[in-house]
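note to self: dont lose this again. the chain is below, predicted strucutre after it. 101 aa total, dont forget to put it in the shared folder this time
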Amino acid sequence: MSKLSYLLVFMAVLLIASPVYAQGGATQTTSWAVPIGAGLGIGIAAGLAGIGQGRVAAAVAEALARNPGARAGIQLALFIGLAFIESLVLFAWVMIFIRAK
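---
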């Protein structure tokens, strides 16, 4: 697809989704920016965690190529590191939804 096609699709989505931004009744107290910010926040957190996990996996592959005898220790460090990275994403997800309430 060309850049013009992407632009046209983007504009069509904005025009179709415009009723979402219509003014609500007097009972509506939340801002429309909170869900958008929450979506962007979890997207950034998940994307950066994916990059981090990829770098960890690359480092483990290199370490195993250099020293295959240390597989058990390297594998343990891999799983602990991946668990910490994933837990940070889950903490970000929980904090975003606590704030979005």
